[in-house]
């Protein structure tokens, strides 16, 4: 009972913290005039996914309450939520103005190639952090179906987005980006 009673409040806090901090960081880095509510990163698909995970949680809690009592698994999920959040926020702070929520398709003067800090270890720490965070939320709720579904959907989304984003990065930074991409992994499993 103790574990289940804290899962939904933890989830609520994780979501609020993620989106509100994302929004205020964007304002701090890009200035209020350049930030829209899109920086909250709440899309229709995202709301549907969150609604589905809540539904799964409530159904399983009603019919198999003991499933939700695996405290060590729920705590592993909470750990992943924190780690994912830290990785993503490190990426945003490190990249600064180069980190825009919409992918840039035109090179702007202030857009510099970032290869230091956390970008020394993975090319896409922001996406890596989000993948860990989102899957972590479902492990924290001990939602088996949503854990698998989130892993597949978020992975697929980034597996498609990374080549598109990198196509522009190669145009902007040429060989410098090519060399960087050769020596540093993407940070998303099975994406080169
Ligand atoms: C939402 S941010 C995500 C950045 C990165 N993919 C990540 O996961 O940390 C997308 C913007 O970051 C820019 N970007 C991605 N990697 C970059 C890098 N190493 N240096 C500078 N800009 C980068 C892209 O051009 C794009 O406009």
TrEMBL record:
Gene Ontology MF: a single term: protein C-terminal S-isoprenylcysteine carboxyl O-methyltransferase activity
EC number: 2.1.1.100
InterPro entries documented for this protein: ICMT_MeTrfase, PPMT_MeTrfase
Record's catalysed reaction(s): [protein]-C-terminal S-[(2E,6E)-farnesyl]-L-cysteine + S-adenosyl-L-methionine = [protein]-C-terminal S-[(2E,6E)-farnesyl]-L-cysteine methyl ester + S-adenosyl-L-homocysteine
Superkingdom of the source species: Eukaryota
Free-text cofactor note: Divalent metal cations. Probably Zn(2+).
Cofactor dependence: Zn(2+)
Subcellular locations according to the entry: Endoplasmic reticulum membrane; Membrane
Keywords associated with the record: Endoplasmic reticulum, Membrane, Methyltransferase, S-adenosyl-L-methionine, Transferase, Transmembrane, Transmembrane helix
Pfam families: ICMT
Regions that span the bilayer: 12-29, 41-59, 71-87
GO biological process terms, semicolon-separated: methylation
Enzyme class at the top of the EC tree: transferase
Topology in membrane: Multi-pass membrane protein
GO cellular component, one term: endoplasmic reticulum membrane
Family: Belongs to the class VI-like SAM-binding methyltransferase superfamily. Isoprenylcysteine carboxyl methyltransferase family.
Name of the featured protein: Protein-S-isoprenylcysteine O-methyltransferase
Organism: Beta vulgaris subsp. vulgaris
